[in-house]
Amino acid sequence: MTETTTHPAGGHAEETAPAMRPILHYTAKNTWLNDPNGLVWHQGVYHLFYQNNPFDNVWGNMSWGHATSTDLLHWTEHPVAIACDEEEDVFSGSIVVDHGNTSGFGTAEDPALVAIYTSAFKEGSTHQGTQAQSLAFSTDAGMTWSKYAGNPVLARGSAHFRDPKVFRYEGPAGSCWIMVAVEAQHQQVVLYRSADLKDWEYLSTFGPANASDGEWECPDLFPLPVDGDPDNVKWVLVVNINPGAVAGGSGGQYFVGDFDGVQFTADPDSLAPTDADGNVDLTHCLWLDWGRDYYAAVSFSNAPENRRIMIGWMNNWDYANSLPTSPWRSSMSLAREIELATVDGLPRLVQRPVLTLDSGEPARTIQNMELHNSLLQLPHAMPGSAQLIDAEILPGTARTIAFKLLRATDGSTATALTFDALTSRLTLDRRNSGNTAFHEKFASAESAPVKLDGGALRLRIIVDQCSVEVFAQDGRVVLSDLVFPRSGNLGTDVCVEGGTTTVRKLGVTSLS
């Protein structure tokens, strides 16, 4: 793969379907990608590594692709960083900056970047049929990588032991590296510690808990202050699951609790109740995203100012290999900054998209407009741009408030985002969004409970060619879905039914 610059993110003039490629969401130029891996900030640059098939646009030949950015929106794609070979596929993992040179791969003055990844050993390998954790290192700021001669560094004789997320721990249990990985088919997170990233000691196991009908993958564990209070810090354990997510197929759940350097303990209010048969109501679990297309989400290591920033794979294993795009297939989500805030008396994640663009003035701004059983046309989405809609709405006596996104000129197709005041639910419906026939599981409507604040519904909606991401109530509820509208479907409307609604504020802006 040759190095290419993407500005805006992922844009390439030679592609066969330019209208489909997103503007602000990273895509590889002409190959397949899935899980984000090794997210790390180093020397002023964000590095996005990811599961990549260097030879095709479907899953296979798993290697680590690589892209860099200074703003998390515009990315430069680089050659494959860590490649599969005759012994192993290179599955998911993480990267740390080894500031103390504990591994000996760098120096104290010039620390190495160390990747901890899963070796999925192939037939004929000494370790065939198993997955284990291995190391690679870079001494040139992440641009070239060498596999460690002593790989693997941690094995359990398991066929499904994978996805290590490693971080530096400083606390009551001492100073060390902590690894969280999964026994995927046992629905367990397993924790280890190390002084040098090479020798690992088992600590504890968490799970199964909450959503546990599918494989657990891509865990993450990190501390966050509640409401920004440094004296009130909780730990968040993220566990992605496939299948078995709340919207069907792939998704990400989380737990809030405590970590003492040895064991993670979930708060009781993070654990969903079970019925007499031990079944869990998935709507009572804590979800990163209530949509169909946010999976394998993990956070950046070493992010500046202790920010916690996550990126997920914007896809779902139900139909991932069938998406109607070419030559590329699959994209990342927008980067999201996450915090813990008190919601209904409990610490819960809030997520906000990282939008650092100078977007200029909105194409339209509305303030204090009443709508009674009526339709309001908004500025169209613009070819070559993403669309940002910021709205604060008082539903009033209306039964439903619906945004019709990427609407056809004749109104025959659109993606509908609807708030139902009677049920207090927000639904993202792509069943009539355009091309849904490429897979039987794609046409769907995703719904989430949304509690009004002082009678107000607040929405931040990002529409980007073939995706819609919705952040409701300042990021307390998120819905993300892929959509594939017909060519020229650019209309945007707000439709109010069943009464009178007040649009307190609404702005529509083009982003590029």
SSE order and pairing:
Blueprint: E1 4-5, E2 32-42, E3 45-53, E4 63-69, E5 76-82, E6 88-97, E7 113-121, E8 131-138, E9 146-147, E10 154-155, E11 161-171, E12 174-183, E13 188-194, E14 201-206, E15 215-226, E16 229-242, E17 251-259, E18 264-266, E19 295-299, E20 309-314, E21 331-332, E22 336-343, E23 346-353, E24 364-372, E25 375-378, E26 386-394, E27 400-407, E28 415-420, E29 425-429, E30 445-449, E31 457-463, E32 467-472, E33 477-482, E34 491-497, E35 500-511
Antiparallel strand pairs: 1-5, 2-3, 3-4, 4-5, 6-7, 7-8, 8-9, 8-10, 11-12, 12-13, 13-14, 15-16, 16-17, 17-18, 19-20, 20-21, 20-22, 22-23, 24-35, 25-34, 26-31, 26-35, 27-28, 27-34, 28-29, 29-30, 31-32, 32-33
What summary fits the major beta sheet? Answer: 6 strands, antiparallel
DSSP helical segment count:
0
Specify the structural class: mainly beta
Strand order in the sheet with the most strands: 24-35-26-31-32-33
Give a count of the beta strands, DSSP E runs of length 2 or more. 35
Strand content: over 45%
- Specify the overall morphology: globular
> Roughly how many Å is the radius of gyration?
23 Å
Helix content: under 10%
- Residue stretches low in confidence (pLDDT < 50, at least 5 long) are 1-18
Mean pLDDT: 94
What is the rounded distance between the termini? 25 Å
